[in-house]
Amino acid sequence: MGFRFLDLISSAFVAVLLISNIAALKVFVIGPFVFDGGALIFPLSYIFGDVLTEVYGYSVSRRVIWQGLFWLIVFNAIMSVCIALPGEADWETKVGQANFVKVLGLSPRLALAGWLGFFWGEFCNSYVLAKLKLATGGRYLPLRTIGSTIAGQLVDTGLFCAVAFGGLLSQTTLLNYIVTGYFYKVGLEALMTPVTLWTVAFLKAREGVDIFDRETNFNPFASR
Hints:
- By secondary structure, the chain is mostly helical.
- It is 73% helix and 4% strand.
- The chain has one domain (6-207): Arp2/3 complex 21 kDa subunit ARPC3.
- Strand 1 and strand 2 form a beta hairpin.
């Protein structure tokens, strides 16, 4: 079955992932709270994840999550190759290798943290949403989207922060970072619930589909 809007949502999902991967390199403070730049846009990936699962089903969401992980790994690999290549003389004078590495250099540890957090967090979000849809007969969508985000962001934020910054930041700063990021992302999705509901209703009407994952294999590594 062909869908009119699936490609658009999938590409937006991957774009948000790549943008947030760069933005997350900046850690900043607002008052007593510690954030990274990815917090400005990454929560949108969970909104897209909710839309994908609610409208098109877990299997489609699983495929898009794998696509996102693939392009995230490609992005990190290309940046690593660019850093390793020798710089041209004029470029070294005007930009410089050190500046390039500061902006786009990503340690293997940070890359791994991003992959793990994204992969398991998104699958947790999609799985919980699909199961709640079955349990509620498709009702209470606001509670289901927020509930799945509570679970998915707990896995995502906890994994990313622990793997990326465990042992580098003090325990107090790391805990602040995790708690602040977690509640910020969950709160943002809660505020965006009206947009999510409108998008889901729009897509269900235009696509003519509303998938219930009754016979779905929820194994994230399943090929079908």
